[in-house]
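From: lab user (bench 3)
To: helpdesk
Subject: output format question, protein + nicotinamide-adenine-dinucleotide

Hello, I'm new to running complex predictions and I'm not sure whether the block I got back is the full result or only part of it. Here's what I submitted:
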Amino acid sequence: MTQPEMHIDRKLAKDDLILITGAGGFIGGALARYFHDLGYTRIRAVDRKPLAEWYQRVPGVECLSTDLSEKENAVRAVEATVEVYNFAADMGGMGFIERFRVECLRSILINTHLVEAAWRAGTERYFFSSSACAYNTDLQKDPGARALKESDAYPAMAERGYGWEKLISEIFCQEYWAERGLETHIARFHNIYGPDGTWFGGREKAPAAICRKVIEAKDTGNTEIEIWGDGTQTRSFCFIDDCVLGIDLIMHCDKLIATPINLGTSELISIDDLVTMVEQIGAVKLARKYDLDAPKGVAGRNSDNTFIKSVLSWEPDTPLRVGMAKTYAWIEQQYRDRKAGKRVVQD
Ligand code: NAD
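Helpdesk reply: Thanks, we reran it on our side. This is the complete output you should expect:
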């Protein structure tokens, strides 16, 4: 079901000020476009990156480049806001979060300052983008591991660094509601992918990396593809359009105040099968070389969607094959543009 088919009671006037942090990145940029297209006229988009490096700049959206791990900047950013969506974090795919744990942990400063500033400013609703990496890693040691339900975050044994930061920030959000009455909403994203995201440079995630490798192989005539791990790792992947709609639904649901909820699909696939899918999209067959020493994350992770279906009567439903075809087409165009010396999303 798409947004125009759903009625969402946002309790939000079209000129209420909405803050989106991390808006120079993938999900924040997509959400700024989404609210703009729905007719919201006062959107403040903030990111640490210089404006020229933002993935999307939406016309009519106020764009500020500032570091939100500094308290004064967080205070200025939330001034007069009715809603705050926090996507700002130092993050990336496994290649980043396994190597840069300190950077991941330091994102705690962003949420800590923002949630306090939002409470002081009288902001009505606050959204935090948590992650499936907050789940207990002991439950993810097998490619066929059962899907994770919300209660599986405890007893806690999160992904070291990135996952623990998410878990602690979730607790901040829950206690700002319990003790101080700031309405907070928390989604645990499961591998979001799609156009206008990171596709090279070391922070990209598996779907984008695999698309890029296949496109590169076709272009250069290379017949081999390198895969991180042994290819048996399993994941579910959620298309960006489902993600932004899910954020809107979760933020505006009274039953989901201070209650972490999965936002992902339950369509499980192994990395090997994802490579096959991308080969089919690209109409090519490559020899596989497995790098067993590369970062590969947990063995298996899927989203149990029982809770989201019961509370929202909805779950992300874009078939992976459809979302991957759109992602592949976008990366292919980016690849061509870059080769032709044109500016692309991450330049
Ligand atoms: P992204 O890297 O594309 O966007 C994050 C943005 O935050 C970047 O543009 C970065 O410059 C900005 N940022 C970092 N530090 C900042 C600071 N101190 N001040 C201001 N801006 C800062 O990532 P994304 O995929 O859009 O993810 C958005 C959020 O969703 C993050 O919190 C991430 O942890 C979470 N998440 C994403 C996924 C996913 O699959 N993409 C999965 C789980 C959770």
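A quick orientation on your result: The mean pLDDT is 96. Let us know if anything else is unclear.
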